[in-house]
């Protein structure tokens, strides 16, 4: 799936969710490279619902969202 982000430096997030609900191959387009790579590696193989609960609501400075928060929104959309 490719999710177009909003309100953050990255422009899109691509990922897969397998038949067991695990997250794989997360890649951010743009954004803070070190941070987005770190988030992607940390949630590799994690249950999508668990990833959502850990990432949802994280803010980036004064912004009401962040790249991890946008990933939680993308995962929610993919599960629905």
UniProtKB/TrEMBL annotation:
Key words of the record: DNA synthesis, Nucleotide-binding
E.C. number: 1.17.4.1
InterPro entries: CHP03905, TSCPD_dom
Source organism superkingdom: Bacteria
Name of a matching Pfam family: TSCPD
Broadest EC class assigned to this enzyme: oxidoreductase
UniProt catalytic activity: a 2'-deoxyribonucleoside 5'-diphosphate + [thioredoxin]-disulfide + H2O = a ribonucleoside 5'-diphosphate + [thioredoxin]-dithiol
All residue ranges annotated as the TSCPD domain in the record: 3-79
Family: Belongs to the ribonucleoside diphosphate reductase class-2 family.
Record's protein name: ribonucleoside-diphosphate reductase
UniProt lineage: Bacteria, Bacillati, Bacillota, Clostridia, Lachnospirales
């Amino acid at each position: 799936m490719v999710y177009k982000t909003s309100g953050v430096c990255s422009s899109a997030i691509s990922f897969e969710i397998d038949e067991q609900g695990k997250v794989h191959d997360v890649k951010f387009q743009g954004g803070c490279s070190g941070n987005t790579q770190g988030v992607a590696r940390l949630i590799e193989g994690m249950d999508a619902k668990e990833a959502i609960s850990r990432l949802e609501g994280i803010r980036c400075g004064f912004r009401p969202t962040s790249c991890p928060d946008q990933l939680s929104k993308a995962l929610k959309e993919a599960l629905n």
